[in-house]
Amino acid sequence: MLGALRRIESRGAVETAHRALQNCGQIFRYAIATGRAERDISADLKGALPPVKSGHFAAITEPKQVAELLRAIDDYQGTFTVQCALKLAPMFFVRPGELRQAEWEHFDLDAAEWRYTVTKTNTAHIVPLASQAVEMLKELHALTGKGRYVFPSARTPNGSRPMSDVALLAALRRMGFSKDEASVHGFRALARTILDEVLGFRPDFIEHQLAHAVRDPNGRAYNRTAHLPARHKMMQAWADYLDNLKASATILPFKQVI
Predict the structure, then answer these.
(1) Which pLDDT does position 59 carry in this prediction?
(2) Which of 23, 32, 95, 254 has its CA 20 to 30 A from that of 61?
(3) Helical H runs in the chain?
(4) Which residues pair with 114 in a beta bridge?
(5) Torsion on CA atoms 246, 249, 250, 252, rounded to nearest 10
């Protein structure tokens, strides 16, 4: 299996190699469920492939560089609304358009969940909220909670229009990060890489949280509540990891295959 994956990787298709490994895992789990196999051998190859790098969106995935970016966001001198969006972007790792168009009515801060429809696929999605996110949203609600959008446009104080699609990119540029270094969409690649290669969460949990199409061993699409308790734990662990990076605590290394 590793030999086949290496051939895919050698063509420069690292992301395809990762997806092939995930597909192999789905096949083996189905084989286990139907008595055709005793275990999923694809799990032994976790960390064998290099991390996926975004081909279209700049993404910082090296932990030390991520720490620098997070500290820069904390020191951002722009509006509080934009700063909150920048802080929540890596925690949520949703698509940029979904973040800036987030609506207050879709948030349940008591349940620590954000439920909305993914416009790209027209499917329902749930983002579990870490305690850090809930605290930040409560603070932001005092400022923008009377309007429709969580992150309203600076030109519409009543909150009737969402933040501009270039507001966060412009903020990153003002902080000194070029278009070749960082993008808002790049936080998705960051989360996908670290959650798998460093924190060791199951790839299907990560794919669910990225709102990608994930199917069970019988080929059926999982519903939005699949593995929700586990995803709550994953999102809290992710937020804690980001806090540790920002505080320059011990940085967990990428897993090595010997």
Answers:
(1) 57
(2) 23
(3) 2-10, 14-33, 63-74, 80-92, 96-100, 131-144, 167-174, 186-197, 203-209, 228-246
(4) 107, 127
(5) -30
- Which of 168, 179, 166 is closest to 58 using CA atoms? 179
C-beta separation of 170 from 159 below 8 A: no
Report which of 213, 224, 238 is spatially closest to residue 92, judged by C-alpha positions. 238
Whole-angstrom distance, CA of residue 48 vs CA of residue 255: 9
DSSP label of 227: T
Q: Which domains does the chain have, with CATH numbers?
A: 1-50 (1.10.150.130), 52-252 (1.10.443.10)
The DSSP secondary structure of 230-252, one letter per residue, reads: HHHHHHHHHHHHHHHHHTT-PPP
Contact between 242 and 91 (Cβ < 8 Å): yes
Residue 154 pLDDT = 85
Assign 100 to helix, strand or coil. helix
Tokens of 139: 């603070």
Q: What is the pTM of this model?
A: 0.70
Give pLDDT tens digits for 122-156: 788 999 999 999 999 999 999 999 999 999 998 88
Question: Would you give the distance in Å from CA 70 to the centre of its chain?
Answer: 15
* DSSP H stretches of helix in 34-154: 63-74, 80-92, 96-100, 131-144
Overall residue count recorded for the chain in this entry:
258
**What's the DSSP call for residue 258?**
-
